[in-house]
Amino acid sequence: MDNYINFAITTIIENSLYAVEYNNTGNDEFHNLFENWSDVEYLEAFFEKHKSDLQRGFYGNMPIEDAIFQTINEAEKPEQQLIEIAEKGKTDAVHSLQTLFKPLYNYEKAIYPIPEHQKSKAYGSDFKSWLRIYAIRIEKNTFIVTGGAIKLTETMNDREHLQNELEKLDLVKQFLINGDIIDNDSIVDFTEI
pTM for the whole thing? Predict the structure, then answer.
């Protein structure tokens, strides 16, 4: 967690979609994800490192070149969709970010009322997508993106890069709780536009 000690919250869509920027890098997690998922060199290095996960089990046996092509194609739609729904959700109760983001843990789907600062995930555009966007839910149409990953294994506990995403979710959630950030009004003081 020491890698994520210093962070800021940046605005993607005002009063709706935010993202964390770790360690004053100048890049927020929302934009980082989609840049990485469209970068052939980044994807080639990632799939080489996780070749055994790619070629066995959860997603079958896929060559690295096919995985790169699939990731680039699949990543195009969610970025634009998140932006459109974030904007639309400000006035449309049916089409809000809550339709794209689901609870991180399946057992939370049955909980009512929805827990404050709920850890959430959104998927890529394909039916059996390995793309994940992780966020903390503040309100129905207000989410803070903490990171994301290519998830080739069944659980997040199996790989270091996925465990890092869990740590980031925990860190940001605790920051929001400590800062009493519970709605759009309270988040404004902590954002950089």
Answer: 0.91
For residues 86, 157, 38 and 138, what is the CA-based torsion angle, rounded to 10 degrees? Answer: 10
Q: Residue ranges per domain, the chain?
A: 2-192
Q: What is the pLDDT of residues 71-94, one digit of tens each?
A: 999 998 899 999 999 999 999 888
Contacts of 133 (CB under 8 A, 6+ apart): 30, 33, 78, 82, 101, 121, 122, 123, 145, 148
CA 31, 35, 36, 38 torsion-angle sign: positive
- Owner of token pair 């555009």: 125
Backbone angles phi, psi at 126, to 5 degrees: -75, 155
Q: What angle do CA 48, 49, 54 make, to 5 degrees?
A: 70
